[in-house]
Design goal:
mainly alpha
Length: 185
């Protein structure tokens, strides 16, 4: 068990605390928990890179912890009316599509190696900024009206673009096109 893995497990434990704070409308605590999770994500990555503490377990746990927190925050913000439900449904559907594709390819004995695409990294970054902005607005009782709608729109566009990019990559992988064969052979 490496130090980065212990930090990641702490992030898993922060998720229910952040969700509970949100459900109790303790936006200051929710924002603080979200901020701590973000900082700890950077810290565990720094430690893993600079002190050679990479692990196979950490390679799986780290993105799972990030995704669990982000999806949980989006779902609660959606049901509390702070984010549009279409955005939450789009985000959750994209993630479900990716998980189903990975599971199906594994079951079909043609496992796909998931590599983050640039559009997916941009999507995640915008989603994190959007969640932080909304939680910050609620925690500090401020409105960043020009910013929130723009982030919502950008997040929606990038979520759809990311889903499409992953779907195309998965279809190519499953058809063998991305493995050196030419289409139609």
């Amino acid at each position: 068990m490496t130090i980065p893995n212990m930090i990641t497990i702490m992030r898993f434990m922060l998720v229910p605390a952040v969700v509970l704070a949100m459900l109790q409308e303790r936006w200051d605590w929710a924002f603080a928990g979200f901020l701590i999770a973000g900082i700890s994500d950077g810290v565990d990555g720094f430690i893993a890179r600079h002190f050679n503490q990479f692990s196979r377990l950490g390679a799986y746990l780290d993105p799972m912890a990030d995704k669990l927190l982000l999806v949980s925050v989006f779902v609660v913000l959606g049901f509390s009316g702070e984010l549009p439900l279409w955005l939450v449904v789009t985000m959750v559907s994209r993630d479900a599509l990716i998980v189903c594709a990975v599971l199906l390819s594994t079951v079909m004995a043609h496992p796909v190696e998931m590599k983050p695409l640039l559009v997916s990294k941009a999507n995640t970054a915008i989603q994190i900024v959007l969640a932080a902005v909304v939680l910050g607005e609620l925690a500090f009782d401020i409105r960043l009206d020009p910013l929130r709608p723009a982030l919502i729109l950008l997040s929606g566009v990038l979520t759809v673009a990311s889903a499409a990019a992953y779907l195309v990559a998965w279809l190519r992988h499953m058809s063998g096109y991305g493995e050196g064969s030419t289409p139609g052979t």
